[in-house]
Amino acid sequence: MQSYDSIQIWNLMNYPSDLNIIINKNGRDWLRKKLLKKYGLLKIAVKKLNIGYWGLIDNLRGRSALDFSKLTRLVKKLNLNKNIIQREIEGLVIRHIKIKNVHFPIRCDPIFASLFINLLGDGGLHKRNGTGCFHYGESESYQLIQEKISHILGETPYQKGEFVPRVLVFLMMKYFNTKNIATKQSIFPRKLLNTDKFTKLACLTAFINDEGTPTTTFIQIYSSNYNLLTGVRDLSQSLGYKVSKISRKKDDGTYLFRINSVNNFFDDYKKLIKKYPEARLISRKERILRILDLIPSRPKRSRKETFDLIIENLKNRERNIYDLCEVTQMTQSGVHKYLKELITSKKIKRKPSDSKTRYIYTLA
What is the DSSP secondary-structure string of 144-198? Predict the structure, then answer.
């Protein structure tokens, strides 16, 4: 099994905001025994430790969360085993926001890294409270973020995935030694180029989710941040994929490059999501790549039979290019050639789409 770095809760020593810890009953009882063993009475303990008596009683009875600075003081004064107390931590309270079933130590696995790439790709920091936030147009993208947060940290009140808790953003920025995650100023963390294949792949997939367009012949990836995109291109090359040079669009100045090894990427991707389903693409983008699985089993057809198949499938309803790729079991470029001929012969027509696909097709 691949081993990954771990982040202990003690890495929050210089966390710049209020932080309280919820310890389970076993942990509270263990802490009480250690206090009594060293000081004999709790009233003596609070005087020696310079903490409030009733506040400590509430902490030990589970009526209130324990201030993190108070916990670290107890660990130091009582010479407590950090690993034992960490195992008994079941939640965090940050500015009245409760995170349940926390997973400390946090594993810096592929999902951890991919969530950070999401923040760099299409995220940022909320100016008021420092939480991570996104600008997605599809609810499924937020759902994936929530699954990643639950996998990494625990259950947050942000059940729609709209925010990443500040405490997790803090730990990620510290781990990747990053000072800015605003998309236009962010820098690709070079340490990702030396990670295992699944971590690299999960990060690339996360960026494709945010800033990529898969097709059946290539994957186009773009960003307004040249340095960030250069890092993503290097990441793609480190996975053995053939990539184009970075170019710049004339209309909006966005930078882009293409991954031309789409079949290799898709083969790797299927292995990745089998082990880490939270790393998957949103269904709209995954659907495009799934067409690649249909192509090898495509039956032999004449050109006329392919034309007839397309027309037959347009009789009942309008269809987009991906619908027709699935029906014909062909690549987008292959289907486009047939559609162009059918439009020229005025058998079908094309019109702009309101969805993420540019056009839809219907009978003329």
Answer: HHHHHHHHHT-B-S-TTS-EE-HHHHHHHHHHTT-S---TTT----GGGGGS-HH
The residues with which 362 forms a beta bridge, in sequence order, are 349
The set of residues, in sequence order, having a beta carbon less than 8 Å from that of 307 and lying 6+ positions away, is 338, 341, 342
Q: Degrees (nearest 5) of the Cα angle 145, 103, 141?
A: 5
* Conformational region of residue 130, where left means phi above 0, alpha means psi within -120 to 50, and beta covers everything else: left
- Evaluate the CA torsion angle 102, 105, 107, 112 in order and state its sign: positive
Contact 242, 259 (CB under 8 A): yes
Largest CA distance in the chain: 94
d(CA 112, CA 136): 19
Question: Average model confidence (pLDDT) for the chain?
Answer: 92
Q: What is the dihedral of CA 267, 270, 275, 277, to 10 degrees?
A: 150
Buried b (16+ CB within 10 A) or exposed e, 122-148: bbbbeeeeebbbbebeeeebbebbbbb
Could you read off the pLDDT of 284-330 as tens digits, one per residue? Answer: 999 999 999 999 999 999 999 999 999 999 998 999 999 999 999 99
Residue range 234-249, pLDDT digits in tens: 999 999 999 999 999 8
Q: Please name the helix (run of DSSP H) or strand (run of DSSP E) that holds residue 341, with its range, or none.
A: helix 332-344
User: 97 forms bridges with which residues in the sheet?
Assistant: 94
Residue 1: pLDDT band (50, 70, 90) is low
Report, as an integer, the average pLDDT of 62-77: 93
d(CA 102, CA 121): 26
Residue 353 phi/psi, 5° resolution? -105, 150
Beta strand ranges found along 290-347 (DSSP E): 319-320
Query: What's the chain's length in residues?
Result: 364
Gyration radius of the chain over CA positions: 26
Q: Which letter does DSSP use for residue 274 in this model?
A: H
As given in the structure block, the two tokens for residue 25 are: 């009953």
